[in-house]
Design goal:
Layout (H helix, E strand, L loop, with lengths): L3 H16 L6 H8 L3 H4 L6 H21 L8 H18 L9 H14 L13 H9 L9 H16 L1 H4 L6 H14 L2
Helix pairs in contact: 1-2, 4-5, 4-6, 5-10, 8-10
């Protein structure tokens, strides 16, 4: 039996990977899948919703790949330097995840999905470290007086530094990112 939703997802992932978000249309996806455009809308509200679902699945794969070699009981500074480095490299190496760096397009995707479905979970990478930070707080490794959401926001801000490598000076990377991670973690330690 043909599972049309899975076929749409897989074909869209392939097309988005080859052409990027902007150059991919629903017509291209449906042609590759062998269905009519109207059938697409039985499964997805929009191209943006489909893309975000693919993005989310790819981000989970990246997180799982990164975390399989990480010992969460190691030194927090070393762990987070390694995780952040692998995270940014993985995002740049994956054509779907690389769309994150096109902030104007990515924010439009998020807005369109919010308008259309209203209930799409958009935690993406933001909650990537939440369990780890809460664990370290309960173990007394990092400060408890700072809410884990604020800690997540500190690490989320590193994405914006990564977006501006050229303006800051490419010759200073990846060492600048290592220092920022180290300074944040050491500021959180008890």
């Amino acid at each position: 039996m043909k599972n049309t939703k899975i076929e749409i997802f897989n074909n869209a992932k392939e097309v988005f990977s080859e052409k990027g978000f902007k150059e991919t249309s629903i017509a291209i996806i449906t042609k590759k899948t062998g269905i009519g455009v109207g059938t697409f809308y039985n499964f997805y509200f929009s191209k943006e919703e489909l893309f975000l679902e693919i993005f989310y699945v790819e981000s989970i794969k990246l997180k799982d790949e990164i975390m399989k070699d990480i010992d969460i009981d190691d030194d927090p500074v070393c762990i987070l330097k390694e995780v952040i480095s692998k995270l940014f490299k993985g995002m740049k190496d994956n054509s779907i995840l690389r769309e994150w760096y096109n902030r104007e397009t990515f924010f439009k995707i998020l807005e369109k999905v919010k308008e259309g479905s209203g209930n799409k979970k958009e935690d993406l990478f933001y909650n990537f470290f939440n369990d780890t930070f809460k664990k370290w707080q309960s173990e007394g490794k990092i400060r408890k007086d700072i809410d884990s959401e604020y800690i997540l926001a500190l690490f989320n801000s590193l994405c914006f530094v990564d977006l501006h490598i050229e303006e800051i000076g490419g010759e200073f990377f990846p060492k600048t990112m290592d220092y920022l991670v180290e300074f944040i973690v050491k500021g959180l330690m008890v």
